[in-house]
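Try this one yourself first.
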């Protein structure tokens, strides 16, 4: 099982973005497999989205709902999705998280509107094998 498979199987992953001064800002998020990457979803005006827009350098690690990691953090690169890809990410989240995912997405759409959230694709950094 690859690192991507393991992270995609987790209920929550810790997505850590970085401020301009280099300070880490960890956030537990839902994550789904999206081809050769992970996908997460966030409010479009959130701090993590602003930090990703500035620099896509992130790390991801398996964690619990409170953001306590229970595995190694992996370097990755995050990019923001366009509206079509964001819709696809929402569909993947509905599939993985079922009723609670649908309810969360509905609540978010009612609060923020269709454009109030954005999908984020997280590509894991390639690592040399071995070790």
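Now uncover the answer:
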């Amino acid at each position: 099982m690859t690192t991507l498979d393991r992270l995609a199987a987790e209920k929550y992953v810790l997505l850590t973005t970085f401020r301009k001064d280099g300070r880490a800002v960890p956030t537990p998020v839902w994550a789904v497999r999206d081809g050769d990457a992970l996908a997460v979803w966030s409010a479009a005006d959130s701090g993590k989205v602003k930090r990703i827009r500035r620099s896509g350098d992130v790390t991801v690690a398996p964690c619990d709902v409170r953001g306590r990691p229970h595995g190694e953090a992996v370097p990755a690169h995050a990019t923001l999705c366009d509206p079509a890809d964001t819709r696809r990410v929402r569909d993947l989240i509905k599939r993985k998280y079922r009723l609670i995912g649908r309810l969360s997405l509905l609540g978010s759409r009612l609060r923020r509107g269709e454009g109030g959230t954005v999908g984020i694709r997280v590509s894991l950094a390639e690592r040399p094998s071995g070790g």
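Discussion: The beta strands are 12-18, 24-29, 32-34, 37-43, 57-63, 74-80, 117-124. The chain has one domain: 3-124.
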